[in-house]
Amino acid sequence: MGTSTQGRKTAEPSPQARGRELARHGQQLWKELRSVKSAAAELMSRNPDVPSIQAYRYAAGLSQDQAAVRYNEVNDHQTSLGGTTINAWETWARTRGAGSPPTFSSLLVLATAYGRGPLGITTEDISPSDLVSEAYERLAPEDQLSLKRYNDRRPNAAAGDLNTHLLVSRSPTTAIRKNIVGPDFNLGVPTIAYGNPEVCVFTLPNPQPGQLLNLTWETFGFGIERLIRQIKNMGRRLDADVCFGINEAGLVMATFLASAQFARCSIGYLRCHKVRDTVALAPESFYPDASPGSTILICDFEVKHADVIGFTCRELRRRYPDASLYFAVFGAMTKSADLAVASFDDLAGAQIMRTAELEAVFIAATMSPPGIEPPLELR
């Protein structure tokens, strides 16, 4: 006798598996919308059973344990909250009669913690009320009153919805005072035969997506130090005869590297400007004397999509026959929002660097569109 399939239910995923899937969706939504608040709202619209306090955590890219760590960081580590408390709050919001409610003060801290986003560097304005929107009436009466008074006295929320005001004064004339340097990662790059194929690169998260990231001198110097370390660890000693800088920012890089790493070798200057869709070199460019077969290091501030390095390599090979060309760039733009790329080919300028047939490539940092600005707006 066959077994009837009528009424058979599809096996539901375990809570852990569903949690991982929701976390993945939350992170993807944040990458698309660049807002914890918008990502959480979209996640809840797709999953009505997910309470807001949990949706905000997923949108912030945090596990329960990571959320607890972030909570303690906001409190300058004067608290020692654990992931079990985060779980208790979310259980309370999801199921009547289970878990325990957060206090008004806890909601204040949690809103700040989640407002920092997946990278931990933004200051998105999130109201504590947003975290308990569907469970507000189940809070203690005194916490309900505190939330109401907080919202009544709160500045115009629309002004606070700007995603990223990290380290920016309220005065529009005051520049960002400090950059956030993201995590290091190893990246395989084109290099010499039997050379070290990996360089240690740092990420430059942009707290204001869609706007140029203005670098401080401190960050600029840190990138120069990173390039020096990569050059020293290439696998063999690199002795440059000339350091060429592309435009003013590249010239500053070339000056630092020539002095610090190459015993004050000669310095050249390539002033590039665009003529319609092509690149041209201005007559102010300077080419030091060098013997055929010289070793030349080319320095540029950033690599995006334009084939500046290919053009300059062709010009230098014409002027310096049989020269060995190396390339040091401060910032390389990535193709996706993930700055810790898995492969050199995930960089926007990967193909133009490969086509330039360089001996080796050195990269200090990865960056996102639209790019980075050097200190004092050097060009």
Summarize the structure.
36% of the residues lie in helices and 16% in strands. It has 379 residues and is α/β, with parallel strands linked by helices.
Note the topology.
Layout: H1 15-33, H2 36-46, H3 52-59, H4 64-74, H5 83-94, H6 104-115, H7 141-153, H8 157-160, E1 184-188, E2 198-203, E3 213-214, H9 217-232, E4 242-246, H10 247-260, E5 266-270, E6 272-275, E7 278-281, E8 295-303, H11 308-319, E9 324-333, H12 350-355, E10 360-367, E11 372-373
Parallel strand pairs: 2-10, 3-11, 4-5, 4-8, 8-9, 9-10
Antiparallel strand pairs: 1-2, 6-7
Question: Tags for this entry?
Answer:
single chain; 379 residues; alpha/beta; Rossmann fold; 2 domains; seven-stranded mixed β-sheet; two-stranded parallel sheet; 12 helices; 11 strands; 16% strand; disordered N terminus
Describe the structure.
By secondary structure, the protein is α/β, with parallel strands linked by helices. 36% of the residues lie in helices and 16% in strands. The protein has helices at 15-33, 36-46, 52-59, 64-74, 83-94, 104-115, 141-153, 157-160, 217-232, 247-260, 308-319, 350-355, and strands at residues 184-188, 198-203, 213-214, 242-246, 266-270, 272-275, 278-281, 295-303, 324-333, 360-367, 372-373. It has a 7-stranded mixed beta sheet with strand order 1-2-10-9-8-4-5. A two-stranded parallel ribbon has the order 3-11. It has a two-stranded antiparallel ribbon with strand order 6-7. Strand 6 (272-275) and strand 7 form a beta hairpin. Helix 4 packs across helix 5 (83-94). The chain starts with 14 loop residues before the first helix and ends in a 6-residue tail after the last strand. Residues 1-9 and 156-177 have low confidence and may be disordered.
